[in-house]
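Weekly structure sync, notes
Attendees: PL (lead), two postdocs, one rotation student
Agenda item 3: pending single-chain targets
PL asked that the sequence for the first pending target be pasted directly into the notes so everyone works from the same version. It is reproduced below exactly as submitted, 160 residues in total.
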Amino acid sequence: MAELPGAARDGYTFEGWFTAAEGGDAVTADTVFDKDTTVFAHWKKNVVSATPSVKLSTSAYTYNGKVKTPGVKVSVNGTVLTKDNYSVSYGKGRKNVGKYTVKVTLKNDYAGSKTVSFKITPELLRFYDYDLNHVAEPGDFDVMIGGSSQAEKIARLTLK
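Predicted structure, written out during the meeting:
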């Protein structure tokens, strides 16, 4: 055969003809068969490479001692993606005052990633200083839960 026929499939790139559905030997115009043989088209799924748009459900929390995990909305070129087209990884901690990262990595039909951040602010740890400025000073805070300072439930918080 002087030339092998081509093939087309929406959303895929034709990689050639092979002697097996998976793997197998490549078939070219020079391949000689000594009997009837089925050949198989191999395809590679086309992937959209992009930097996704990532919107967090909130970009700032007020400190309360609990781990924060904001929700994400991911889109590519204006199309909102379903959760099976991306994975989300959150930075460690996400409990104390500070800035934390959220990384979204595209998968399946898409390739790319984006890292965004959110803050946990010390609003509940602010107080009025000598000059009546509303401030949050770095240091350790003991939070006592109970009817008096003799309370048995005490948590130590560090504001950096």
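Discussion points:
- The mean pLDDT is 87.
- Residues 128 and 134 are 5 Å apart (CA to CA).
Action: rotation student to compare against the earlier draft before next sync.
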